[in-house]
Amino acid sequence: MVGEYKKGGLVLLYAAVLFVCLSILIPYLWLVISSVSHRVELTSIPLKWIPDSLNLENYRQIVTGSSGINASLKYGLLNSLIIAGVATLFCLFAGSLAAYAFSRLRFRGKNVVFSFILVTQVMPMIVLIIPIYIIMSKIGLLNTIPALIIADCAFILPLVIWLMRSFFESIPRSLEEMACIDGCSRFGTIFRIVMPLSTPGLAASGIFAFIIAWNEFFSALILSSTIKSKTISVIISEYSSKVGVDYVAMAAAGVVASIPPVLLALLFQKYIVQGLTAGSVKG
Amino acid sequence: MKRKVIALLLALMLVGGTLFASGDAESAERITVIMPRHEMDLVGIWERQTREFEESTGIQVEFIQMSWDEVQTKVMTDLAAGGNSYDVIEFDNGWVEKFAAAGWVEPLNDYGDSDYFNTLLPGLLNTFTVDGKILGVSWNNDTRFFFYNKAMLEKAGITAPPRTWADVVAQSEKLKRAGLTDYPIAEYWNQEWALANSLAFYLYSFGANYFDKDGNITINKPEAVEALQFMYDMLYKQKIVNPSSITLSQEAAADLFYRGSSAFFFQGPPSTFSYANDPTKSQVVGDVEVSEWLPAKAVGLQATLTLPEAFAIPKASDNKEAAWKYIRYMISHDRDKERAMEIGSLPLFKRSYNDPDLLEKYPYWVQFGKQSAVAQALPLVDWYDELVQKTIVAVQQMFQGTKSAQDVGDEIAEFLKGREYNGMILHE
Questions:
Q1: Does residue A3 lie in a domain region?
Q2: N or C terminus of chain B with fewer C-beta within 10 Å?
Q3: B92: nearest CA in chain A?
Q4: Which parts of the chain span the membrane according to its record (chain A) (predicted)?
């Protein structure tokens, strides 16, 4: 009887897992199918799940084209890689140090300062974009990659500080005390003891920071104008015209844009799971 | 350890400094052009012609192309902030009065001569002229046309497209009885800007308008209310308009036409014919025809919308002469004909409509020319965007059944009361 209940519970669990997986994978699968279909197949009734013939024209233009939106996608991809990469590395470095300070150091107003940092996360970007635009314009950074890196860091850094602080709290202080006894300096302790133990947390924070920076659209739209600094998310939005959207081309661009974050997530998935579950079990 | 940290910090500063280092030494004259992508330009011909301009003049162009909504956001933000980020800007037909009232754009009368301006289509030139000042030169002749599925009509025994709205209803019911379609018409009546365009078309076709040239508000008078009621009745009484129309965009409505679900497309963009004959986009290849006329309450009330876009030079631009050179180059008969031949965009010059090369490639432009004779612009007021917001909400409420056609007319009339138009105050 107990065994039957256990089996039944297992079936339900796997059914729920299958449902979640399908609800995540099917939209992406449809994106891929749309990207190699012709528009007439996407609007036909009944719906054609598998196209009669593959339409690879958009992918060809993305790779070899010299003009048009498809051709500019590769520049957007490069810009996004640079912006997301640099913003992630900077936020991991600065955020980890700040998180360590909030976790380990004692100073007046520590909790108030930490709360202020978190409060910035609740401010919608649309409230901040005009002052950011004016500042970037005054210092001559409009339509440049550094402007977008700075804008991304402004809202990613608090998240990294918050995540890493939680992770540092789960690392026993006794390890640092032992290192100190052995003559290790504070920075030495951080880089030799704490950071290596924090690899899962760094990976989890890093992947979140990268995805946020990669997907960021609004500040990129306002601060960039040409392919000198346009990100892939801005270029994808340009597939819409006054009278409609080129869905097939946009789907192809979406597939291309999804490759780097998906690869990163696959590479670091072990660390992400560790990072998200670290500290969940006491003792 | 300390040395390593210092080295790391120095490296970061170096990288940061490199990233911050800005570029290029100022050499050639530079202008910045911002415009939406032409809906038919899938091959990048505007960008290509811009590069040709650079080669022939030596003037460097920072060429910004984005979706229409994004361009609107960027242009409005920059102009309102008094910025001079752009030298040639998108100038939509709906912005003419607003920009003129705000004094944001440079009159172009002294830049070009009358020989040039007189070669442009008068309707396009006049749309962007205020009090004799030419504020923009059109780059997109976005006139809307009536297309129909000739094959469906022939199967139902209909020999010609409808001339009146009564004909539309009769032919639609015939198509339904023949089992050819459940809903012969699909409209774009989603609560967005395009709904206001659609309403304007129906108002004009009933001989109605929001107000008349003497400043009398007419949106709540019988002719306008009849137009509103007709839109409602087509949906719920005659049931000849697809009920999903109240959530359809222009593109979604067009997709139903290309799929053969609807037989009439009253206000399609010029690209509709070529899309309908593209087998990768359409299931009605060879079935679509361009009408020589548009349906209206009476034959003499025919109207179609023209929604052109233009280039303008902001008053704050530091490179006005170079900006004009760009406009003059791009909006020339030769460049315009090249675009027409390659992507099928409607010409901007009068003589192009008699061009044998173009007429051989696009014989249906003869019908376009006939419909263009009754083209009308949207209301030219500097508060048009506010009128659009008021209108689309009220009309959607009518479609939802919470307001009657008269209620909608009265509500819009109340909004119009006291507004300024051409030096007059609108009144009932």
A1: yes
A2: N
A3: A242
A4: 12-33, 77-100, 112-135, 141-164, 247-268
